[in-house]
Amino acid sequence: MNLKTIRGKFGIIIFLITVMVFTNGILSYKGDRDIKSVNKTTFPAYKLSNQMSTSLISVWQYLSDISATRALDGLDDGLQMAEDNANKFKMAANDLKSIEPDKAKQIDDILKAFDDYYTVGKKMANIYIKDGTEAGNKFMPQFDEASEKILELTNKFAKDQDSDIESSLGKSAFQNNLSLYILITSGAILVVFIFILSGQVLKPLNELVEYAGAIAKGDLSKQSRISKRKDEIGQLAYAFEVSVQSLRNIISKIDYTSKTVNSFSKDLTGASKLTSSASNQVASSIEEISTGATKQLNEINQVSMLMTKLDSDIKKAVDKLEETSRITMESQNISKLGAKSMGDIESNMSLIFEFNKKNVEKIGELEKNSLKINQIVEAITQIATQTNLLALNAAIEAARAGESGRGFSVVSEEIRKLAEESSVSAGLITNVVKEIQEQIQEITLYISNGTKYVEDGVAVVNEASSRFNGIEVNASDILRYVKEVADFSKDINSVSNKISKYTKDILLIVENSSTFTEEVMAASEENTANIHNMAASINELTKLTEDLGELVRSFNI
Fold first, then answer.
1. In terms of Cα–Cα distance, which of 36, 23, 29, 34 is closest to 172?
2. Which residues cross the membrane (predicted)?
3. Closest residue by Cα to residue 94 from 107, 84, 103
4. CA-to-CA distance for 247 and 33, rounded, in angstroms?
5. Other Cβ atoms closer than 10 A to 403
6. Which of 79, 76, 141, 146 is nearest to 115 (CA)?
7. Mean pLDDT for the chain?
8. pLDDT digits (tens, 9 = 90+) for 499-535
9. Domain 6-202 carries which CATH code?
10. SS3 readout for 427-438
11. Dihedrals phi, psi of 556, to nearest 5 degrees
């Protein structure tokens, strides 16, 4: 909240009023709650406490009376009356315990002491009645002791009740006094704040009224002293100041305009003198228009004849151009077909390149396989060598007999293993040979396809050559037609130059005629307007200038 603005200041007032009302409301609520508590608890408890005291005194009184009268001469109702008051005492004590449960223990102590007191009192009264005064007097100290105990407890409880009442009433009085104090203090602060705020608001408002009065009288020279305030009045004063500045600028412009209008009125006076000169120029322009019209008629006849010849030449040129266009379109179609043929050639050549590339790759694979065959052959050679050695060993072992027969068996096993390796190598050689045969077949197929594509490429080249020959023939025809069109164009150009010359002459005459006509019309209209309105305009401008000057002089800028 901005305290520099009027809204903020009034907000503080509203806030103070709200706080004051809220505080008083809380205090009033608490006071009302305390009063209700006193009416509901404290006063009933106080009445019950008094009732207990009254009942206790009555019990003592009736027991004492019957002890003194010994129930003689018809005075035998004391015990019954004492019993009734004892019951009243107990009922009041129980009611009091339900009202003030926090004092239940104290009340229970009182009830216990009362029971002892009442028991002793009844016993004493019966002794007085039955055994006489002397016997009863002996029991009197015990009764007095019980009486003092119950009186002590009841008196203490009564004092506590009095203290509770005084505390509740004092608390209620304090809250009422506090509420009144807060109300008076808040009201005083509110009055002071309103007084200060009214001074802060009314003073600048009076200055603003004075400033507005000066503006109403036409005095725009004064400056506002409160436009720099941060509140709403300052904003209003600033708006006034901006408006005055705008009005000051408008008045200055009006003053300048009035002077300018006065100058224009003087210029109009001078313009009236030029009207006569413009009339003379109109007569001269009309004469020049008449001469130009005669010359223009002759030029138009010449242009008409040239246009007839130009039309014939243009028709011939159009015929040749149409034929040229037809041949050009044919050439364009042939060129498109030729371009397509060249594309087919390029595609066939690409395929031939791919097939040749694959042939080279297959040949490379054949070379690798041939190397594998060499390796296998070398392995077979080594196996054969080892076989020969083993055969030699077998022969040596075979020469031996007896125990050496086992060595021959080992050699035979080795020969068997070498034979198996020879068989595996032979299988590998067979597989490699098959792969070589398959690759040779693929190479043959690729070469056949390459040959076919080469033949197709040759045919396409021949077709493209034929089509380009047709383009050459059409180009010769186009060249011939173009030469004929060029001849016609030369004639057309010659005629066109003449027409252009005549047209320029006619255009110049027309422009001059148009200019002269516009000048004549403008001059005529200007003269007519000037003659009828010039005097009235000058008088009106003079009057407006005077009125405007008086209006400006009414402001003090």
1. 34
2. 6-27, 178-197
3. 107
4. 68
5. 7
6. 146
7. 75
8. 678 768 757 865 776 676 577 567 667 766 775 776 6
9. 1.20.120
10. HHHHHHHHHHHH
11. -105, 100
For the chain, residues classed under CATH 1.10.287 are 248-553
Q: Pinpoint the residues of the chain covered by CATH 1.20.120.
A: 6-202
Residue 175 near residue 34, CB atoms below 8 Å: yes
Asked if 237 contacts 265 with a C-beta cutoff of 8 angstroms, the reply is no
Distance CA 179, CA 28 (A): 8
Q: What are the tens digits of pLDDT across the range 429-477? A: 688 768 867 876 886 787 677 667 757 866 865 776 677 577 567 667 7
- The secondary structure of the chain in percent helix, strand, coil, rounded to multiples of 5, reads 95, 0, 5
Question: According to the 3-state scheme, what is the secondary structure of 528-545?
Answer: HHHHHHHHHHHHHHHHHH
Q: Tell me the pLDDT tens digit for each residue of 353-406.
A: 787 678 668 768 867 876 786 777 587 678 768 777 776 777 677 677 777 666
Tokens of 481: 């037609």
- Distances 431 to 345, 417, 422 between C-alpha atoms, Å: 41, 21, 14
Tell me how far apart the alpha carbons of residues 23 and 183 are, in angstroms, rounded to a whole number.
9
Structure tokens at 137: 């007097």
- Asked if residue 278 has pLDDT above 80, the reply is no
The pLDDT value given to residue 48: 87
* 3-state per-residue secondary structure call for 110-177: HHHHHHHHHHHHHHHHHHHHHHCHHHHHHHHHHHHHHHHHHHHHHHHHHHHHHHHHHHHHHHHHHHHH
Number of Cβ within a 10 Å radius of residue 109: 14
The Cβ-side half-sphere exposure at 67, using a 13 Å CA radius, reads 24
Two structure tokens written together for 6 = 């009027």
| CA–CA dist 1, 12 (Å, integer) | 9
Handedness of CA 352, 354, 357, 359 (dihedral sign): negative
Give the tens place of pLDDT for each residue, 40-60: 677 788 888 888 889 999 989
Q: How far apart are CA 356 and CA 454, in angstroms?
A: 12
| b (16+ CB within 10 A) / e for 511-550 | ebbeebeebbeebeebbeebeeeeeebbeebeeebeebbe
Q: What is the Cα–Cα distance from 60 to 78, expressed in whole angstroms? A: 10
For residue 111, how many other CB atoms are within 10 A of its CB? 18
**Cα 372-377-379 angle, rounded to 5 deg:** 95
Please say if the pLDDT value at position 482 is more than 60. Answer: no
Alpha-carbon gap, residue 225 to 211, rounded angstroms: 9
pLDDT of residue 286: 47
Query: 175: burial class by Cβ within 10 Å (0-12, 13-18, 19+)?
Result: buried
Please name the CATH architecture into which domain 248-553 falls: Orthogonal Bundle (1.10)
Q: How far apart are CA 81 and CA 58, in angstroms?
A: 8
Q: Which of 494, 486, 472 is nearest to 320 (CA)?
A: 486
